[in-house]
Structure formats: structure tokens, C-alpha cells
Amino acid sequence: MRADKFKVADFHCDVLSKMQASPDINFDNDPRLDVTAERLASGGVELQCFAIFLSTNRGKPSFEHVLGQIDLFRQKIVNTDGLQWLQWKEQVGNRLVGAPPQAMLSLEGVDGLEGNLFYAQLCFELGVRFLGVTWNYANWAADGVLEQRNGGFTEKGRKLIEWCNESGMLLDVSHLSQTGFWELADLSNRPFIASHSNASAICGHVRNLNDEQIKALIAMDGRMGLTFYPWFVRDDGKARMDDLLKHIEHVCNLGGEKHMMFGSDFDGIDTWVEKLEHPGKYPDLIEQLLRYYPEDTVKGWMYENAASFLSANLPSQVSKP
């Protein structure tokens, strides 16, 4: 099978925060973006997840800023001529030939919810389907991975977990502290993902997952999105595609062949894996993978593992109140 015929799912990009900072950005083909509509099409990306990330450059995170990025997503990404909005499990794989790619919304760090679960409910009603609990530092819900105290969830954070389990909002542990990871594994009755994290056994960056965390994700039938930020791929930050394959092989050796996907972090990074600078390069990555792995396995990593998770865990439109 030709590489350009593979479907791709990418679980993390930061287009929306760039758009909020520069409202004149054109999603179709703006050179200021890594991820554009043109590059998604040329790379065979069938599903792209867009993160709502509130940069500290805009001051204290607020729910108003969250709403601003949701509005940008509605106006510039999933408008009449744009991508198709994926919100419900019934939409996964239910596609017409030639349909535009699907797009999902996630929230990277709940700081902008201001500790208010009503705001979380509004995000769900407005189409957000994944919550990353923290960015790198502490917020009202939990500690991020760069907090030296390595704390877990606050009382409000535990209530957030409970609400997510009840509502159908899915959780993302990329950026969460190790203590928080294990608390969430104990408290959640639903599987979660790490949308953009690699294996710390291969690259020691603090944001990567250790073997026990990866095994826990596998055991709960969660998903791990390998990311393309060079500093998460190789310790010296000078990464090529072959270096990414070392993470893939390591996760496979832990039993995670059916649990891997990709979360590029495009538009959230300022250096790139060589020859993997934007989603239009996905066919090159696929060709590299096919040199070492069977076609069905590569199909799983590129799209099917992500799709099976969404089919099982997204809320149902049929049963919604």
C-alpha cells in the first residue's frame, strides 16, 4: 500500500493559540503555521486534534480566553468550507469518500476554567472532548510535571475527575506530575491518554513517561501519542525519524503496539525532527515505518489505534440528554 494512501490521526497541535495571538492567520496555507488545511490534505491526515492552550503571554488564564479559542476553532477550522467537527462516537469512521478531515477540540491545562465545573460543563456542551489537567506547573486542579514538590490532585481536582467520568469528557495526562498520574489511574473509572509524550527510557526529558506509566496506560487500554518535539525524542535535541523509531520499538517491547498513536505538537514547537517539519511529511514517516514493520501495524499507529479508542470512549450522541 502506498504511504500516501494511509489515514493519519494526530492528537495534538497548537494552531489555536497562534491564531489567538495573530488573528490575521489564514488556516488554509499560512506560512506561520506548521498545520494548515493544505498540509493536512497532502499528509493524509484524517483526524487532527486542536488544543486550547492559554499562553502566559496573554496574562492570567481566564475562561474568556478559552471561549476565544473555541470561537476561532468554529470560525476558522470547522466553518462551512472547513474540517468536519468530531464530537461523538457515532462519527468515528462514518465518513463519505472525499470528505474533509475531522477535527477535535482539547483543552491543554484547566487553568482557564478558574476552578468552576460549570465552565467545564460549558466546554463539553461547546464540543471540547479532552481535558489535559495541567500544563507544566500547578493549577487549581493538580501539579504539573515541572513542580518540584510533585504533588497530586487537589480536592477540586478530584471533583473534576468525578465530573469527567460522569459527563464523558476524556482526560489527558501529558504534562501531569507523576503523583497526579498515579492518583488519576486510581480514581478514574475510564481509560485516559497521554496525547503528546514519549518514552523516558529512550529520552530522559521530564515530560516523557517512564515504563511503569506506559504499562499502566496499556493495562487500562488507554493511548500514548508519540510526539515530534526533538527534545522529547533525543537527549541532545537533534532528532531524525530513526530516533523516533527507538521510542516506537520500546513501547512495543512493553506490549503497547495497539496503544500507540501520534501527537505531533506542531505549532507548539520551535525545532523539528529532521524531515518531519509539518503534517505534509507524514507519508515520509509512513515509508520509514514500513521498512521495519508490517502494514497492518503501521496502519494502527497512524490511525486505527486512535479511532478504536474514540469509538469506545467518546460520548454517544444517541444517549445524550
TrEMBL record:
SUPFAM superfamilies: Metallo-dependent hydrolases (SSF51556)
A family per Pfam: Peptidase_M19
Entry-linked Gene3D superfamilies: Metal-dependent hydrolases
CDD domains: rDP_like (cd01301)
Coiled coil: none
Tree of life domain: Bacteria
Membrane spanning stretches: none
InterPro entries in the record: Metal_Hydrolase (IPR032466), Pept_M19 (IPR008257)
Name of the protein: Dipeptidase
Annotated source species: Paenibacillus odorifer
